[in-house]
Fold these 4 entries.
Entry 1:
Amino acid sequence: MTDQTPATLVPITIAILGGTGKEGAGLGFRWAHAGHRVILGSREADRAVTAAADLTALLGGRATVEGADNATAAAAATVVVLAVPFSAQQATALSVRDALAGKILIDVTVPLVPPKVDRVQLPAGGSAVQRLQDELGPQVRVVSAFQNVSAVHLKKIDHPIDCDVLVCGDDADAREQVVALANAAGMVAWHAGVLANSAAAEALTSVLIAINKRYKVSSSGIRLTGVAPPGPPAGG
Amino acid sequence: MTDQTPATLVPITIAILGGTGKEGAGLGFRWAHAGHRVILGSREADRAVTAAADLTALLGGRATVEGADNATAAAAATVVVLAVPFSAQQATALSVRDALAGKILIDVTVPLVPPKVDRVQLPAGGSAVQRLQDELGPQVRVVSAFQNVSAVHLKKIDHPIDCDVLVCGDDADAREQVVALANAAGMVAWHAGVLANSAAAEALTSVLIAINKRYKVSSSGIRLTGVAPPGPPAGG
C-alpha cells in the first residue's frame, strides 16, 4: 500500500455512519485505499461487517476495512462521516452524540424528499446540515461536503472523479482537514465558506438529479471555473 | 450585423429592468450584438437612455440599444428581464405587473443580504424567485437564470463565458426560450428543473463570492460535468 500513500498522509481513523450505503461505502473505499483506517458503521453491526468485508475484497489486499455498530465506530474514530438518508440524519447523529464531542463530523446528507427528489426542498432555515449543527451544539465540528459527488464513480479507483467538492463549515481548521481528506480520495475540493453555505451544495444535488433525468445521463456533477485548483494540502 | 446573426435567430424585443446595472447591461449588450432589440429600463428614463447610449457606442455601429422607464420598457417587450438588487426585486416587478401578463419574466435576482454577501441567506421558503412567482401569479411565466454569470465577462464579446447557466422554471416552453437566449448570448445553458430549483443557483452565487474572496479571483463560475452540452436550440 505504501506506494499509493502520499508522503504527507498521516493516517487517521474514519468512521462512516451509514457506511453500508453507496455514497458512504464509496468514500470509505477511497480512504482505505489512500491509507486511512476506515470503520463502516450501521445500526446493525452485522450489516456493517458484511459491507466492510466486501470493501476489503474490492481492495484486493491493499487494506482492511472494519465494520461495527454506529456508536462503536464513532467512538473509535477521530473523524466521523454521516452518510445516511435525510430522514435518518438527525436521529443517527444524535444517537452517537457523546462520541462526537471535539471531533469533526462530515455531513454528506442531502435533503432529498421523495418522491420528488429532482425538486429542491430545503428545510426551513435553508441548510439541513446547519440545522444539525444547531442541534448538536458547538462541541461538534460539523463540516459539509461530498453532496454532489455521484457514488457511481467512487469505487472505480482509476476513474478520475469529474466533480469538485464544496466544503462548508464554520471551523476553518476542520474545513481544511476535510479538504485534505477529499484530496486523499482523489477529488478537487474548495473552501466554500460558512456552514450555512451548504444550502448551495444541498440544493444542487436535486438540480443534478433533474439534469440527469432531462439529459439522460447517470452522474452529472460540477466543476468550478475561473479559479485554479489549489495545490496539495500542507498537512495529511 | 447579419454576419453575426445565426440563421435561426428570430429577433425579439427584450426589456431589461435594472438595465443600468452591470449584469443587466452586460446581458443587454450581448443580446443586442446577437441581433435582438434591447430596451434598458430604469426607474428614471434619463438614466436608462444614458446607459443605452453607452452600450450603443460599445457596439460600434452593430446595433442600437434603447432606454426607457421600466414600465415603458416592459410594455414594449415580449421578454422582460429583472436584474435589480434583491431589495428592489418585488417592488420593481410589481410596479410593472400589468405589462408582464402572458410574458416571460427572466429573473436574474440573487438574494444577497449585505454586508455578508458571501453567506447564503435564502428567504424563507427557499428561492427568492419562487416567492416572486407566487406574488405575481400564474399569468406571468417566471424563469430563473444567469445568477452565476459574472458581469465581468459579459461586455467582452470575444471573451468566452466560462460559466454554465442553470435555467429553472415551471413552464417548459418558457424555459426553452431562455435556454435559447442564453445560447444567443454565447453561454451554455441547461434545463435545471422547476422554479423552486433556483434556490441552488441563488445560493451558489454566495458560494462563488466566498470562493472569489478565499482564492483571490474575480469571477469564479461553474460548469456541469458528466453531461454533453446540448446542441443549438431548434428555435431562435
Entry 2:
Amino acid sequence: MTARRTGRRPGRPDTRAAILAAARVAFAERGFDAASIRAIATAAGVDPALVHHYFGSKEELFRATVAIPIDPAELLPAVLAAGPDEAGERLVRTFLSVWDSPAGGAAVALLRSAVSNEWTARLVREFLITQVLRRILEHLDLDPAELPLRGALVGSQLIGLAMMRYVIRLEPVASAAPETLVAALAPTIQRYLTGPLTAAPPPKG
Amino acid sequence: MTARRTGRRPGRPDTRAAILAAARVAFAERGFDAASIRAIATAAGVDPALVHHYFGSKEELFRATVAIPIDPAELLPAVLAAGPDEAGERLVRTFLSVWDSPAGGAAVALLRSAVSNEWTARLVREFLITQVLRRILEHLDLDPAELPLRGALVGSQLIGLAMMRYVIRLEPVASAAPETLVAALAPTIQRYLTGPLTAAPPPKG
C-alpha cells in the first residue's frame, strides 16, 4: 500500500505512518520504558523533533500505536481520589464507563487483535503495565515486591470481564447494569490491590 | 477441500466431517439444550444412529465440535468433593491443571478462535454454561435466580486468568507456580460461587 497525499493537510501522511510503524516495533520489542523517541525517529528515518511534532509525548505516541483514544492518566486521579479503600470500586466503575462508551469499540478491537497477533499482545501488555496498572499501584503504599502480581491479578479480572461482556457476550454479564457488575467485582479488585494474596494454610489432600 | 478416504479405517471420514459441521451449526445457532441429535443427523443427511455410532452421546459430540479433549464431567466431582466451601479453591486448581497440561493447547486455541469468530464464541459460551458452570452450580444449593450471574462471574475470572497466563502472558501470572495463583484467586471464585454479590450501600457521588 502507498500513502496518498492530498496536499491539503500539513505534514505528510507517509511520515506519520512511518513513525507509527517504527514505534509499534520499538514498543513491542523493547517495551515502553526502553523504547526511546530518538531510536524510533532513527528507525523511521526522520528527525526526533518530527516525532514530537506529530505525536507529542512518548505516552501519546504509544496510545497512537494501540489506537486507544483514551488517556488513562486523565481517568486515574478519579480512581484514587477517595483513597485506597475505594480504589477497587472506582476502578471497576471507570473501566466499565470507558468500555461501554464509543471509545470501547477501539478497546474491544485491540483485545481481539492481541489474541491473534503476538506483537499486539506485547503492546497490550506494555500498555496495561505502564499506562494503567503501575500508575494506580504506585499510589497505594504497597510492598514493591508485590506490585507485579497485584497488577496482573487486577488485569486478569478486568480483561476477563471485557471478554465476557463484549466478546463472548455471556449473559447476564453482557447486558448487566454497570452498578450490578461494580458491586460484584469491586471486592475482588480491592483485594487484588490492597488485600492479602496468600491463603490460609492449604487443606490436606 | 475434499475428504480423503484411505479405505483402511471403518466409517467414512466425510460422513464424520458432515456430522461435525452440522453439529457446529446446530449448537451455535440453537444452543446445546435445544439442538437435537435427530436434527443434526437430518442436516448432515445421515441416520441418527450413525451420529451415536461416531460420537456417542450429545455431550461427546459437543466436545468434538469444540475440539476439547477433556470431559468436564469427569473433573467436576473432585471440585465438589470437599464441600461447597472449598469449591472455589478446587475449581481454580483443576482449571490450572487442565490448561497447564498438554490438553491446554486445545483450550488456548479455542479461546483464540472465539475472539475472532462469532460462531466459535457461541460454542464457547454454550460449553461454559452447559458443560462446566451449570454442573458446578447445581450442586451448591443456591438461589436459582442468582445462578446465571454467579456462573458468568466465575467464567470472567477464569477466562481472564487464561488470557493473562497463556495469551497476553503478563508476568508474573504467566509463569507463576499454580499454588500462587490458587491462593490469590480462590477467594474470588469462592465468593462468586457462594458469597454475597451485592455491595454495602454505595458511596455518594
Entry 3:
Amino acid sequence: MWVQFPPGAPRGTMKINVGVIGGYRCSRKDYNTAYHLGKLIAREDWVLVCGGGGGVMEAACKGAKEEGGLTVGILPSLEGDEANPYLDVKITTGLGYARNILVVRASQVLVAVDGKHGTLSEIAFALNEGKTVYGINTWDIKGVIKVKSCEEAINRIKRFIKRFL
Amino acid sequence: MWVQFPPGAPRGTMKINVGVIGGYRCSRKDYNTAYHLGKLIAREDWVLVCGGGGGVMEAACKGAKEEGGLTVGILPSLEGDEANPYLDVKITTGLGYARNILVVRASQVLVAVDGKHGTLSEIAFALNEGKTVYGINTWDIKGVIKVKSCEEAINRIKRFIKRFL
Amino acid sequence: MWVQFPPGAPRGTMKINVGVIGGYRCSRKDYNTAYHLGKLIAREDWVLVCGGGGGVMEAACKGAKEEGGLTVGILPSLEGDEANPYLDVKITTGLGYARNILVVRASQVLVAVDGKHGTLSEIAFALNEGKTVYGINTWDIKGVIKVKSCEEAINRIKRFIKRFL
Amino acid sequence: MWVQFPPGAPRGTMKINVGVIGGYRCSRKDYNTAYHLGKLIAREDWVLVCGGGGGVMEAACKGAKEEGGLTVGILPSLEGDEANPYLDVKITTGLGYARNILVVRASQVLVAVDGKHGTLSEIAFALNEGKTVYGINTWDIKGVIKVKSCEEAINRIKRFIKRFL
C-alpha cells in the first residue's frame, strides 16, 4: 500500500502526491482551470507533483502556492532553467521528456488538463501502470475518467483515497 | 545526424534501427501482420528493435530471424525471463514499462501494430520526441501516419531514410 | 545556472538541494553524524534530498524535520514502503537502485556519510557529472573532499554556493 | 535465471552479454588489452555490451568485430554521434551518463579495464546489484575480482557461466 500512516509518524508522511499533467503552453481558459485545480489540491493538503514547467504546470503550482501548498517539479534538464517560479522542490533529471515517466510514477493519482503528445504519453503510461487519471478538456482516451470541473476531480480523488484506507 | 556512414566503416554501423511496437498479446491477424513486417525489415537489413516480449514483438522478431535479420529486445525485467525466443540481443533493464521510453529512443523510426495503453505510451512519446510513427490497425492518434500494409510501411521508411542521406 | 533567484519569486524557488548519501544501515556513530548533518542543512533552509530509506538517509531526514526542514526521498520501489517516516516528499520511481542517479542529479552538491557500494555508485556518478561531493567517514576516492565534521561540510557548501551567486 | 536455453530456440537466445567498461580515452596499453579482450569475447560467441564510445569501448568492439562477434553500444546521446565505428547495435538513450546503469543491467557479467569516475560508477553500481566484475588495471575497489590477463577473465567467466547451467 502506497499511503503509509505509521503511528506517530510526522505529518509529512501522511500526504499523497497528486500529479497534474498538461501542456507547457496552454490557453487562458486551461490556465485558469489548472490554477483553480492547484488551489483545491493545496487545500486538501496533498502534494502537487508535475513536470515543473510552464502552462498547465505553472498554473497549478501558482494556485497551490497561493494556498500554502507543497509543489514538486520533476524537470527535463540538468540545470532546471525551465522551472516555473512556484516550485518548492525542483528535481532536475537530465532525462529530457523521459522524465514524464517519473511524474507518473511519483503520483498516486493524476489529473490531466489539456495537453499535447507529451501529456498523452503521461496519460497512456499512467493507465498502463494501472493508475487512475481524471481528465478535464484533455485527450479522449479509453481509460481516462472525464470530469467536468476541478471540484469533481477533487471529490473523486477523495473517494479514491478512502477506498484505500 | 543519426545515420552514420563513416568512410570505410564496418557494415554494422550503416544499419538503422526500426522499432516495432504493439501488444504483448494480440490477435492472430495482428500476429501475422507483425510477422510479415519483421520479415520485410530484415530483408532491408535494418535492425529490428522492440520491447522483447510476446505478441506483436514476438511475431516481428520471428519473421526477422527467419530472414536472417538482427533483433534487439529492450526488456522490462532484470532477468529477461519474459524475452521471446527470437532475440539476438537482450537488453534487460529492470525499469518495468519505463523501458518503453528506451524502445522509442533507440529507434530512428517506428511502426505500431495494434496495441493497448503501453503501445499508446510509446506512440505518444515518439511523437513528442519528433519521431515518425507508422501505424497499422493501431491507435488513431493525430500524428500517426496510417499505412494499409507492411509493404507501404517499408516503402515509406525507405523514403524517410533517403531524405536524411 | 541552477540556482534561480527571479525577482519577486516565491521563497521556495530560492532553495538549493543538498543530497545526503550513505548506507541504508549504519553504525550508531554514523547515524548521529547524519542526524546532526540533517539539522544543520535544515537550519540553512536548504532542501534535503536523499534516497528516502533507512540508516544515514533516515537519520538526516529526522534531524532536518526536527528543525522544520524540507525533506525529499527518491525511492527505489513503486509503492514507497521502504520510505523512512521523515519525508515530506516521496518520489517513488520503480527503478530500483537506478534511482541513485536521480538522487545525484537532483542535488546541487552532495555529502556522503559512510556507505557501501550503493553510496560509492552515487559518489562516482556525481564526480563524473562534475558535482562536488563532501565526505565524512566514507569511501576514500580521488575527487571526494574529505571533511572532519558536519559544520565543516556546511561551511564549505556555503562557500560553494556563494561562488555561484 | 538469466541464461535462457529454451529447447529448439534459435541460436541467438543462447548468448550471454559480457559488459566491457572503461574510459572513453585510454593509454595505448589499455587499448591493446581491451582489443584483445574483445577478440576473446567474440570467440566465445558472447555478445559484447558497452557504452559505445571511444577508448576501451572502441578497442573492445574493434577486436570483437575482427572475430565476427556481435557488439552493442548503449550510448549517452539521442543521436549517437559519439558511437565508435564497430557497433552492430546502437542503443541511443538521450540519458547522458545515466546510461551507465543500463550498460550494467544489460550485462550478466562485466570486465573493467582502466577507467575514471564513469567506470567507477559502473563498477559500484554492478557490485551493488550483485553482479560479478573482473578488473584489469582498474579501480582497486573491494568486491572487484582482479585478473592479470584477458585470458584469465575469459576463463573465470566460463566458470561463472557453468555454475548457472
Entry 4:
Amino acid sequence: MSNETREHIRDWWRTDIVNVEDGNIRYRGYAIEDLIGNVSLVETIWLLLRGELPDPKQARLLEATMVASVNAGPMSPSCAIAAMAITCGVGLNNAIASGINALGDTHGGAGQQVMERLLLIRDSDGTDMHAKVATHLEQFFEEGGRFLPGFGHRFHSVDPRAQRLLELIDEATADGVVQGEYAKMVRAMEAELTRRKGRNIPVNVDGAFAAVLAELGFAAPLARGIFVLARAAGLLAHAVESQTEGRRIKGPVPDDIMYTYSGHAPRALPGAQ
Amino acid sequence: MSNETREHIRDWWRTDIVNVEDGNIRYRGYAIEDLIGNVSLVETIWLLLRGELPDPKQARLLEATMVASVNAGPMSPSCAIAAMAITCGVGLNNAIASGINALGDTHGGAGQQVMERLLLIRDSDGTDMHAKVATHLEQFFEEGGRFLPGFGHRFHSVDPRAQRLLELIDEATADGVVQGEYAKMVRAMEAELTRRKGRNIPVNVDGAFAAVLAELGFAAPLARGIFVLARAAGLLAHAVESQTEGRRIKGPVPDDIMYTYSGHAPRALPGAQ
Amino acid sequence: MSNETREHIRDWWRTDIVNVEDGNIRYRGYAIEDLIGNVSLVETIWLLLRGELPDPKQARLLEATMVASVNAGPMSPSCAIAAMAITCGVGLNNAIASGINALGDTHGGAGQQVMERLLLIRDSDGTDMHAKVATHLEQFFEEGGRFLPGFGHRFHSVDPRAQRLLELIDEATADGVVQGEYAKMVRAMEAELTRRKGRNIPVNVDGAFAAVLAELGFAAPLARGIFVLARAAGLLAHAVESQTEGRRIKGPVPDDIMYTYSGHAPRALPGAQ
Amino acid sequence: MSNETREHIRDWWRTDIVNVEDGNIRYRGYAIEDLIGNVSLVETIWLLLRGELPDPKQARLLEATMVASVNAGPMSPSCAIAAMAITCGVGLNNAIASGINALGDTHGGAGQQVMERLLLIRDSDGTDMHAKVATHLEQFFEEGGRFLPGFGHRFHSVDPRAQRLLELIDEATADGVVQGEYAKMVRAMEAELTRRKGRNIPVNVDGAFAAVLAELGFAAPLARGIFVLARAAGLLAHAVESQTEGRRIKGPVPDDIMYTYSGHAPRALPGAQ
C-alpha cells in the first residue's frame, strides 16, 4: 500500500462523532460512562447528530415526535415488508433492514419534503408569513400540484398525532424553548388550503413532524433520518409478532394472482417439445 | 379472489400491536395522543414489544443499555458500511438499512447469544449458581470453546460501558426493580474465567447488555432487536457525517488491492484476439 | 496508521478473483476483452466462482437451472417485496436488494438444504444408493420430520421445471458431461417417499436444482448464491412492472386490518388528557 | 375484508410477467419447460423485461455487456460491502443484497445517466448528429459541468471493456442487428471532449454500456436494472471468497481511526461521576 493510499484511507475514515481507545469511549467529547444512566436515548441521538446535548425541554419535543412516528400499522409497506421478511428465514436485523430500506421518497420522505417546503417559504420574499404561504400555495397549484405533502390523510379526517404535536409546540413556545414560527406556518397553510378547497384539509403527522424538527433547528435530511430511527421500533414489533405467531412464508399475498398477459402467440422455440 | 384466500389474507395480517381507524390510533390499547408527550421513546418501544408500559425505573435501565449500544466507531462494520453506502448516491434510509443488514450473528448477535447462555445456566441442574457457572464453563472449554462471548475485548482492557451497566443493575436491585441474579451470574462468570485463564477477562458490553435484558425479562431474540434500534442511531450519525463531509465513493478501501491469482495459464478462448 | 494496520488492511482485501490495473482487467487470469463477446454470462459466473471456465455443456446445464429459477410469481415473498418497495420511492437497485434480502433459509435456501442432504446421503455408510436413501428417510421421519425439502409442492401436482431439469441431467449423463448419480438419488427419494406416503410426492424444482448443482460439483452454499443471481432477474421484472403501471404505495395489503388486541384496560397515564 | 379492498388487492397484484397454475408456469406466454434448456439466461431476462424473446444476435450483444459489468474489484464499494457483510454472520443472500443496495445514483447509476443523455441528444433540435453533440457539450460545460459521465476513467487511460463493446456494436451494425447510431454518438462525444480538453478522454465502460442498451431499445431505467443483475455475480464471488478465506469481522477498516472532535469542553452532566 502506497503512502498516498494510506493517508487517503486514514483521512476518509476520520470522525468527529466517536472516539474509541483502550478503556475509553467518547461520544462528541462525553465519556460514555457519564452518559449511560444520565441522559436519555433521544438526548444521545441529538448529541450524535448535533454535536451537543439538548436542553431537556428540547429533547422532550423530539421524543414526542419520535413516539408519534413509531408505527402506522401493517398497511404501511415498511411494516408489511418487515412482517413478511421474517417469515422467509432471515435474522431480525435483516427483517428490520428490509422495512427501513422501503422508507424512500414516497414512504418515509414526506417529513423531509414538508420541512424543505417550510424552509423555502420562510426564505421567500416578503415580510408577512401569511402572504408568503398564500403565494407559495398559489404557485404550487398553478404548477399542477394536487396533494400538498403534510396535509390531509387517506384514513384520518383529523390526525390525532398532528393535533397533539402542535399542542406540544405551543407549550414549548410558551416556555421559550422554541419560537413557534413553523407551527404558525403549518396552521396558516392548513387555513389557506381549506379556504381554497372549500373543505377541511388538516395538518397530518408529516406536517407536524416537519414543524417540530424545523422548530428544533434540524437540517431537513435529518427529518428522514429521525423518522427512520423511530419507525425501526414499529418494524421490530411487527417482525417479532410475525415470528412469534409462527406465520408462514405463503399467505400475505393472494395466491390466485390475476395473469393479464395478452400478447401474441409465443414464437415456436427451436428446441421446444 | 376466493373466499378462502380472502380469509387467509385477513388472518395473516391481523395484529395485536396497533389499531388504526379514522382519527384514532392505538398502540396496544393506548390512544396515541395520550402517549405523545407523556411517555418516552424507550417506554413506547417497551409497550410495543411487551404489551404494557414499563415502570419508569425499568425503562431507565433499558434506556441506559440502549445509550451504551449506540455507537462503536467506524471500525465496526455496520458503521463502516453506512458511511460507505451514503457516498454511493442512495437515500439515508438505504444507508441505515445497509448497516443494520450487517448486524448478523457475528456482529450484532453477541447480546442474544450471551442471553441464551445466561438462561441456559439458570435452567441447568443444581441449586448453587456459582457451581452451575463453573460446570457450564468447564463444559464450554472441554468442547473446544475458546472465546466466551460477552467477556474480554479486543480494544478495552476494562470496558467502561459494562462496568456502568452493572452498577445500574445494582442500583435497580437495591430499589427492588430487578432481582439482580444475572448481574451476579455474569460476575461469577468473569471470576471463573479469570481464575481459569490466570488473567483478568472482564465482562464486556455484550455481557452486561445481556444481563440487563435478562433482568428485565426480555426474550433472548429481543436482545438483538433492541441492539439494532440503538445502533441505528449511530449508523445515521456516521452516514450524515459522511454526506456532510462530501466524501467520495472511492477511498475507504485501498486502491492498490493485492491480486493473488496464481492459477494456470488461462485456456485459449476460441474467439479471443 | 501503524504499519501493522496497513499490512492487516492490505491482507484483508487481497483477492484471487479480479485484477484491475491501468487499461487491464482480468477475471481469474483472463483478460476481460477476451471474455466479452466470447463467453456467456453464465460461463463468466462459473469462472468467477470456480476459478476456471466450464465446458460449454456444463454451462448449458447451469444455464437451464438458472432459467428455471428466475421467477415464481408475486405470491413469492421476494417478488412481492420488490414490487412493493419500488412504489415507496427507492431506486431499482434498492427494490431488487429488498427482494434478495428475503431469500433466507425458508425462502431461497431450499436448494442449499436439499444439496446438503444429497451430499450427506452420498457420504453415509453403505454401498447401495437405494438402501442409503431408504435409511436416511426412515431416520428423517422417525426424528419427526414431516415435509422433505425438495419434494412435493403446494401448487403443482407435477412441477414442470423439475421434470425438465432431470431430463437435461439425463442427456448430459448420456453425453458424459456429468455422472448422473444425483438425478438417480432424487428419483430414488421420490420413489421411497411415494411408497411411504401412499401417494405421489414428486421431485420439485428445489430438488432438481440441487441435483444439477451437485452433478456440476458446486459447493452447497453456492446453491443459494446461484439461485439469488437467477431470481434477481424476476425481481427486476416485477419492480419495473410495478413502476411502469404507476402502482401506489398503498394497496398491496388490506387496509381493514383486524386488530386483535384484547389486553387489560390500559393504565391511566399521568399526563394523559 | 370489504369487497372493495378485495378488488383493490386483486388489481394491485395482477401481472403480465408470469402465470403460475397447477403444473403450469408461463413466462410471458411461454411454457417454462420449453424455455429451460432452449434459451439462455440472458434471453430469459430479455423476455421478462421486454415481453418477447430477442434475436440471438441481440442477445449476444446484451450478454457481452453484462459480462463486461460483472466485476470491478474490491475498491468498488458494492464489492467491498458484500465482502465485509458476509463476515458479520449473515446469509449469502443478505451479503449480496447489501452490495446491490449500494448501487445508487453515484455507483451503479452511471449507465442510466449516460443513456438518458444519449436519448436527450438524439431528441434535441437539429439534423446533424455531430452538431447536436457539440451543442450539448457546449451547454454542459457552460452550466458548470466538469466530468461527463461515461467518459474518462480514474484508473484506465483506455478502458478495455469500452473498446471491446464498441467493436461488438460495429459488428452487430454490419450484421443489421442494430443501427449503430449510439456507437457513433459516443465516439463523436469522445472526439469533441478530447478536442475541448486537449487530451484524450476516451469512452469508458459506462458510456459503452449505455450505447449498447440504447442500440437494443431498452428504456433508460433498465440500464441500472441490468447492471445490477450482472454485478450481482461479482458480489457473490467476493462474498464467497471472503467466507472461504475465513476473514474476520474486524480488519477491513483501520482500527486507529483519527478522532477529529474539537468542540467545547463538554457540559457537566448532573448525574455524572
